[in-house]
Amino acid sequence: xxxxxxxxxxxxxxxxxxxxxxxxxxxxxxxxxxxxxxxxxxxxxxxxxxxxxxxxxxxxxxxxxxxxxxxxxxxxxxxxxxxxxxxxxxxxxxxxxxxxxxxxxxxxxxxxxxxxxxxxxxxxxxxxxxxxxxxxxxxxxxxxxxxxxxxxxxxxxxxxxxxxxxxxxxxxxxxxxxxxxxxxxxxxxxxxxxxxxxxxxxxxxxxxxxxxxxxxxxxxxxxxxxxxxxxxxxxxxxxxxxxxxxxxxxxxxxxxxxxxxxxxxxxxxxxxxxxxxxxxxxxxxxxxxxxxxxxxxxxxxxxxxxxxxxxxxxxxxxxxxxxxxxxxxxxxxxxxxxxxxxxxxxxxxxxxxxxxxxxxxxxxxxxxxxxxxxxxxxxxxxxxxxxxxxxxxxxxxxxxxxxxxxxxxxxxxxxxxxxxxxxxxxxxxxxxxxxxxxxxxxxxxxxxxxxxxxxxxxxxxxxxxxxxxxxxxxxxxxxxxxxxxxxxxxxxxxxxxxxxxx
Length: 502
Description:
Helices cover 38% and strands 19% of the residues. By secondary structure, the protein is α/β, with parallel strands linked by helices. The strands form 5 sheets. The protein has a 6-stranded mixed beta sheet with strand order 1-2-6-3-7-17. The protein has a 4-stranded mixed beta sheet with strand order 16-9-8-18. A 4-stranded antiparallel beta sheet has the order 12-14-10-15. The radius of gyration is 27 Å and the shape is globular.
């Protein structure tokens, strides 16, 4: 009887435990369901703009001609092709006469351009539209890989081909088309509009954007908003979202490269020590690669999924509505791909190895260059300190290669009025897109403008799908005339919307 009673008591406790677990699961499921149902779209309602009649094909022809100028940034120490840059300046003057008759034009550092369209209300802070007209070189020997020559500016079947078509002459020419159209249609701004076009963005902007910002600071000009390249419209590239996604860069990662050098005795290879300098360096590299920086869904990346999540299927929506529960799973999935892993953490990449001069000589030193793209919230100095802890070897020295490593930019506010104006403009010009913020993994000239405004956003509605992003700095850079017309209308509406937001 006693055993039977004990068994019954145990069964009763098991049933109670099972019942309790079931209640917990049901409660958890209810919370997940309710949060999913409440996770609704945050896309702004907007009426498509229809009154901007810029001719896309004519504008594309002017972009094609702009591509013909070889405004190439070869390197900081390389001589500048002065003639090509000055010829491009003349081309802008000849092609957009009303803009040059109406706006004040200034040369900065001899080659960058700053245009000011003075508004009637000096109390309104200026809108700054950025772009750059320098382009990266075409590596010798790769010209044959282009479908159309890289500096011909050919237009074939409605597509503009050439270096700068998508990075970044489409920004410069698109903004000029917008201003010329507005002047032609008797638009007179209340808010001052400034066009900041750099000549050395591909070199980091030290003589272009940085000097323009210094000029604004000297004049005590604090823009309401800065809009630059960096984000674009991606088609079929956001899993779970059927619509094209318009991503606005609200921050960009920092940049630093460290020379990691192993020091050890040299000598003859016939009597090697237990560990050579190269072996010590190899161990250090292995430690770096085996100990990735911590990361997670935070900042701009979390904000991106807050905007994109409601547009996904129910199952995916449930996940992003309940990141308090599912974030470890999401982070694990994102960490599995290099492109998405980079949005979660500071990344490291070994890019150069140097050591040794002869096969029978032990080198006293071996050096690896490791490049880091720094997540907002960290700094170049905090990266160095973590490296010291990970490597933990007195035979290793760690020194930054850059004189001034670039820390991550501040994060611009997605709730700021300027962001909302930009978001609405995108929805009016590109009504088929879903808009959201994101973290720019590379670098832009716009980072300098945080010295004069907190509202720095990176977006131009250039459309890309599949592997097309690889064509920038690569082969067969191109942009459709139809898409370029969209870019021209975007800048036109952006100026009008900021003028109305006074």
